[in-house]
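Comment thread on ticket #2218

A.B. wrote:
> Attaching the input chain for the structure job we discussed in standup.
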Amino acid sequence: MKTELQSKNRLEAGLLVTLVATVLFVCFLTGGNPDAFLIDDNRTQWYPVMERAYEDFWKTGRIYCYDFYQMKGMSIAQQGYYGIMNPFMLLSFGAAKLLPGGISALTFYIGLMVVLGNLFLYLLSRRLGCGEKLAFLLSMTYSTMGCFWAFFYWYYIFNNYFLIPLIIYVFLRCVEGRVSHYIFGIILAMDLCMGNVQYTCYHYIMFGILCAFMMILKRFCYLKILLTNILVGIGLSIPMLCLLLQASGAFQKQESFFLNPVFYFSLMVHSMIPQGILQSVGKKVSFLDAIIMNRNDNLVLYTGMVTISLCVLFIGKSSRWVKIIGKCNNISSICEKVRGSYKNALEWPHEQKTMMGCVVTFFFFLDFMSGGLVAYVLHAMPVIRNFRYLFKAIFVAVPLAIVLFAWIVRGSVGKCRKMLVCLIILFACIGGINAYDTVQITEHLFDMRIEDSYTKEKEKSVEMIEAAHMDCKNYRTTTFYRFSGIQDECFDQTRNLSRNYPTALGVFSLSGYEIATEDERLEEFDKIYSEKDFFAKYANADSLKNLYMNLETEPDKVQRQLIDNSVRYLLLDKTALKDNSMVLTRKNAQLEKDYREKVITTLRSLPEVQVIDVREFNEHYDLVEIDGVNSLCMDSAGNMVPLRDLNMQTVSFQAQQEEKYTLSLAYDKYLTAFLKEEDGKKQLLSIERMENDNILISTKDACGEVILTYRNPVCIAGFIWEGIVSILFVLHLLCFYTGKNS
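C.D. wrote:
> Ran it. Output below, let me know if you need it in another format.
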């Protein structure tokens, strides 16, 4: 069979049309906004870190895997969310830099995943026997699947959009050839580099089920294919796996595995509802069990006619089997029928066997995301038991559903074909409107008040810091909310310095993605940011109530932590209760107390620190400045030594000979310090761990610039290794283009 990429030694027109149409569709969803997909976690958690890492890479040619700005220093390479070790993210950042219009790297990345996913679904549909026009329509139908656009604020879910069609396409193309023994390992290794352990694990399961189904059909060579690919995948992932093991203590036990299941009834009923059109006229159709992650819009579950068609087919096949079994007189005749069907299955062509394997995989993840037996089995397994939310399996099940739909409709003929094409077009158009409506809803789901681009937000924040005369290079800042509960303003970057936003500004803060941080690190400031409170772990700021309670019960410990952690600036929320719409939705909202003045009064009573000023930071926050805390870098006499940040994982200061310097940065075995003398010579310095987990650096018989940086050999190996994996990945995709793997 000729490769689907070529038709008479040139690209198929349908492939080019799919490419152009997909780009236009993504542009339609963004509405021309270059920051369209920078919402919630994308904006406040991942992007500030990855943008800064890539900005430094653009300047220095080195990718950094440590961040001094957040939480006294935190490794960012192990947690795949940040995407710094994702080759496609690096490509997206470079493209965003070169393209006009100021597009964000994350917006480009999501668009890239959708384009690649549609292209491989087109190729897969052609491989299954669909014509060019039908394959194009199917790829456009794929674009309108509601779940992806409903949760685009988790950018990494689009990895499924691209990789699942790719894996199945490669499975169809590689029929027991030599390349089949390692190509999936390369893809799965690239999968892990793309940055989400949960979905990489699901993809391994999917590949395992496909191979197991082949073995059941007496294709025992797939045992070797399965084992060799797992070995190749793990082998090529060793550096990343080592990084994950280093961070394993930071992955706390989750209690949310069985939350938010998606039930069959909801999925089927909501799969065809034109919610976008209904909401435009002020109506909404939903059911109680459709609520997912506090969302009751059924746009999450929209799949056009795909789910309904699969359901009808399954019911039809099941009823046929029931009739056949019903005609059997005894167990032996039933077994005979089963044996006959099994012998018939042994003669299926490779495409049909693969699709039947996809059916098994589809129902596996369908049962998983609905909280069935599969969920209980997986919950008993290590690693997987710490995954969050059952419904996340929908991002695997939906691509499988569209692949199976392509298999069903490929052979339609005559009037049936025309009607089918019309229905596909109809539901694709409804899905397009739904997708647009979903993006609009999701943009406002968190009550984010975004008035400017991300770049303008940073400029405004820097202006506010300068206007408040804050020394954020030598001291830290912490943020406190006035009311317990999600705040309207907590997602407005320019109002405070919470979450990972300080990294983007290059200022030091105690905030950071604390849910992924080891308990020992949190204990260093657990009375400033309460260790078990929602804000400290998710919103990366605490409430004024918690701070006041800690000041009342353990004032000495709060004071000691303020001093040791160099916290000179406290941003206190002054939003009025009546102006906080999200707090007002709670039943006990009127019982909320204002602890702001009490906090300031109690801070003034601390003996070793002094409140020297309370001034306005902006209309929503006041800035409390305290004196008596250590600076980030101090000499043995207690004098501040100006700290210079060279990049996110390297800082420096000017040092004298035979002197000791304390730094309010957490000790890490991979931290390295060296002295750069005036003549250019370098000498390695020792780093000691202090009782409060800060670090002590002693100079020897020379003066000069002390440079502190983070050097993890596994990170270096990881970056080199991912380059090798990327090259192998691209080379094998090019081989598919030339048709060598047919």
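A.B. wrote:
> Thanks. Noting for the ticket: Residues 414-443 form the longest helix (30 residues).
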